[in-house]
Structures are given as C-alpha cells and as structure tokens.
Design goal:
alpha/beta; two-stranded parallel ribbon; seven-stranded parallel beta sheet
C-alpha cells in the first residue's frame, strides 16, 4: 500500500486531499495540531513551527511504515496588513509556518522518500506569482516555497524523488476567516487597508471548492512524470499566460488597480 503524509490535513485543501488519497488506496497520515483519527486518516500531532514535533512524527511513521510515497505540504495560514506596520513577530510567524514548515517536513521526510523514490507536492499560491497588496508577507512566504521546491527538485533528482509546486488561486475554505488581519496604519493609507483586504476576501469566498482542488492535486500525485509548477484553476492559468505576454510591470499595475480600493 502506498503511504502519504499530508501536513495540515485537519481542514481545507489538506483535508479534502487526504480524503481523496484514501479513496485512491493510500494509507494517509495527517500531521497537524488539531486533527484526529477518523478511521481512515491517521492523525499524528505536529506543529510545523516546532522541529521536535516534526522529527517525532516522522520517526513514528518510519517505525510503522518504513517509507513514504507522497509528501503533500498543505499547512499554512495568512496575515494581512500594510507591510510598513506589520510587527516583525507576525512576519516571522508567517514565514515559520508557511515556509520553514515546508522545509522541516521535507527534511525529515526525505530519508523515507528515498526508500520509495517518492514524490513531494507543496501547495503554494497564485499569490506567489501575483503578489497581493496588503498581503505582502503571505505572498513572500508562498514565493519562497516555489523557489525552495524548484531548487530541491534538482537536488533530489538523483534519488528518483520528484517534486513540484501547485499554486491554487482563490479557494473557499476556513482559511479566509482564520486570517490574522492588522489594520494599523489605516489613517496613513487613507483607510484603504481594510477595504482592499475585503475585496480579496470576497474573491476567496466565491472561489474554487477545495474538493475540486484536491482532485487536481491527487491527479498530479499519480502522474508518472510531473512538471515543476502547476496552477489550479483555469482563470489563474490564463493570468499566468497574460503575465508572460505583458510582463510584470503591467501586470503589477493591474493588480494594484484590482486590490487597492479607497473607502467610498
């Protein structure tokens, strides 16, 4: 039986992907702080910001399974607010969860992935390519994932391990409600921080279903050969194509007009 480890499978894209993997015959382990065994998905407590919990989790999986066929990295959260007024502790926390969490899980999974010549899939975001105003540190964390996985892909090729990034666009999950929003500096920025973030959150609430994104992820997981980067959602694939044609100067200006909204 193939073994999959999913970080952040207690909700959203991670949970739906874990369920989909079970339906495809995988034994699935959820590494998260709040998940629980449900008879199909096996939960192991892990906090991606605490290395010792990650090390212990993979030690348990090694003892039980001896290998991993798929590492799916979904754990993450978001902060928003003006870059100027973001507390450094919040900025660091964003990178610790979204980026360094990916690194720690990968670090301890690699010895088990070498046993099976397995696969790593990291969930990034379209925001890695289209940085969103007042979501600068979230966008930066996702861009860092892209760079990390692209470099790692060549490092681990010799072991038969494959790696790729999947960049969803807006997805309707609990992620939106859980966002840590900072409105400091509203007076300096003319009151547009909260208004602009509300535009972004409206897009998320009308976004793709996580079940559909999970289907896409699992389809990539089972491919024989994979590309380095994938975009989930037709409209976002179109945006990527437009960026290549128009260039970042024009696309970045368009993003500013889309998301920078002054109060009426």
């Amino acid at each position: 039986m193939k073994v999959a480890v999913v970080s952040g499978a207690s909700g959203g894209i991670g949970k739906e992907s874990a369920k989909r993997l079970v339906s495809k015959g995988y034994r699935v382990y959820d590494l998260s702080r709040s998940g629980e065994d449900d008879g199909q998905i096996l939960h192991i407590y892990a906090d991606v910001t605490q290395e010792e919990t990650i090390e212990k989790a993979f030690a348990q999986i090694k003892a039980r399974e001896g290998k991993i066929d798929l590492l799916l990295l979904c754990a993450g959260f978001g902060i928003s607010g003006a870059a100027e007024f973001t507390e450094i502790t919040d900025a660091k926390r964003q990178l610790e969860v979204n980026f360094f969490g990916v690194h720690l899980c990968t670090k301890y999974a690699l010895p088990l992935l070498r046993e099976s010549k397995g696969r790593i899939l990291a969930i990034s975001s379209a925001a890695a390519v289209f940085p969103i105003p007042f979501q600068s540190f979230y966008s930066a964390s996702k861009s860092a994932i892209n760079t990390y996985i692209l470099a790692l892909r060549n490092e681990v090729r010799r072991f038969g391990i494959t790696a790729a990034v999947i960049m969803p666009g807006d997805v309707k999950t609990g992620f939106t409600a859980a966002r840590q929003k900072e409105k400091a500096g509203e007076d300096v920025y003319g009151g547009c921080i909260g208004t602009s973030v509300a535009v972004m959150e409206k897009d998320e609430e009308s976004g793709m279903k996580p079940e559909n994104v999970a289907k896409y992820i699992v389809r990539i997981a089972e491919k024989k050969r994979i590309r380095p980067l994938y975009t989930a959602g037709l409209i976002y694939k179109v945006f990527i194509g437009i960026q290549k044609v128009l260039g970042m100067t024009i696309v970045n200006a368009i993003l500013g007009k889309m998301y920078i909204k002054n109060p009426k």
